[in-house]
Design a protein that fits this description.
Elements: H1 13-20, E1 25-28, H2 35-42, E2 47-52, H3 55-58, E3 67-71, H4 77-83, E4 90-94, H5 116-120, H6 139-154, E5 160-165, E6 168-173, E7 185-191, E8 195-200, H7 202-213, E9 215-224, E10 240-248
Parallel strand pairs: 1-2, 2-3, 4-5
Antiparallel strand pairs: 5-10, 6-8, 7-8, 9-10
Bound molecules: S-adenosylmethionine.
Residues 4, 6-8, 30-33, 35, 51-54, 57, 73-75, 94, 96, 127-130 line the site of S-adenosylmethionine (SAM).
C-alpha cells in the first residue's frame, strides 16, 4: 500500500461531518485515499464520489454502488461527473497547501521527507497540485482556479463547496525574487544570513479566488490538528487548519 502524506485529519471529522449532514451526495475532487467516503458514511450522506489523479492512491478504495473513487484529473471535473452520471450539490475537499510538501527534487540528505512525491515513490502526474508551490510561478493558482471554476459550473444556486486548507510559514532569502502574490505573504521574522520568515496565506488566496468565481463565504472554522513534525519550522507551524464553507450565489 502506498502511503499518503496528507489525509483528512481525524480531528477534523466532527466538524466536517456537520458541514455535509443532510446532503444526498458529496464529491471530493482531490480525493487522495478516499477518507471522503468514511466521512460521508458517518454523516449519513447516502452517496459519495472521489476523483484522484494518482492511480495508486485512487485504487486504495474498493468501490461500492454508492461510494466510488475514480482516477482522473479534476481539471476535467464536469466531464468526469457527467461520464459517471453524478449530480451533486456539495463538494467537500482538502486541496494541497502549496507548502514544502510540494517539494519534488531529489533530496541530497537522508532526512525524512513527508512530501507527495516522496510518499508516492515516483514523480507525480502532470497537473498534480502536489508538486506546485503557492505564490511561486503561478501554476498552483492557475490549476486551482480551473478546478474551482469547474465546481462552480457543476453546482446549482445554493450548492456548497467546503474547503479544508491551512496557512504555513516559509523561509526565504532576501533579496530574492519578488513574490507575484505579495498581498498573501507577511514577513514574521528577520533571520540570520539574509533570510526572512514569511507567513503564506493560501487560505486568503482561495477565499478571494472563490469569491471572484461567484461563491460567497458562509462559514469559517479553525481547528487545531497534530501537524507534521519534521522540518526546520516544526516549532512554529501555524497551529490550525481552517474549514471554509462557500455557497454558490
Ligand atoms: C490534500 S490531498 C487530499 C487527501 C484526502 N483528503 C484524503 O483524505 O486522503 C490532495 C490530493 O489531491 C490530488 N490531486 C492533485 N491534483 C489533482 C488533480 N488535478 N486532479 C485530481 N487529484 C489531484 C493529490 O494527488 C492528492 O492526493
Amino acid at each position: 500500500m502506498t502511503n499518503h502524506p496528507a489525509k483528512f485529519s481525524k480531528t477534523l471529522y466532527e466538524t466536517l461531518i456537520e458541514t455535509i449532514r443532510g446532503e444526498q451526495n458529496v464529491v471530493d475532487p482531490f480525493a487522495g485515499v478516499s477518507r471522503i467516503h468514511e466521512i460521508a458514511e458517518l454523516a449519513e450522506v447516502p452517496n459519495s464520489f472521489g476523483i484522484e489523479l494518482e492511480q495508486e492512491w485512487a485504487e486504495q478504495w474498493t468501490n461500492t454502488p454508492t461510494r466510488q473513487t475514480v482516477t482522473g484529473d479534476s481539471r476535467d471535473l464536469c466531464e468526469i461527473l457527467q461520464t459517471h452520471n453524478i449530480q451533486t450539490q456539495c463538494f467537500l475537499t482538502s486541496s494541497t497547501y502549496g507548502n514544502r510538501m510540494a517539494d519534488h527534487h531529489t533530496a541530497k540528505d537522508k532526512s525524512t521527507r513527508n512530501t507527495y512525491t516522496h510518499q508516492l515513490g515516483h514523480p507525480l502526474t502532470e497537473g498534480n497540485t502536489g508538486m506546485m508551490h503557492f505564490a511561486h510561478n503561478g501554476q498552483y493558482e492557475t490549476t486551482h482556479q480551473q478546478i474551482w471554476q469547474q465546481c462552480h459550473n457543476h453546482l446549482n444556486t445554493n450548492g456548497k463547496l467546503i474547503l479544508n486548507i491551512s496557512n504555513f510559514l516559509r523561509t526565504r532569502k532576501t533579496p530574492g525574487p519578488r513574490s507575484p502574490l505579495k498581498q498573501y505573504e507577511t514577513i514574521t521574522e528577520h533571520l540570520n544570513n539574509n533570510k526572512i520568515r514569511v507567513l503564506c496565506q493560501p487560505t486568503l488566496w482561495h477565499t478571494h479566488t472563490l469569491q471572484q468565481i461567484g461563491f460567497t463565504l458562509t462559514n469559517q472554522q479553525h481547528t487545531k490538528t497534530r501537524r507534521q513534525k519534521q522540518g526546520a519550522n516544526n516549532n512554529i507551524r501555524a497551529p490550525h487548519e481552517t474549514i471554509l464553507t462557500f455557497t454558490k450565489t
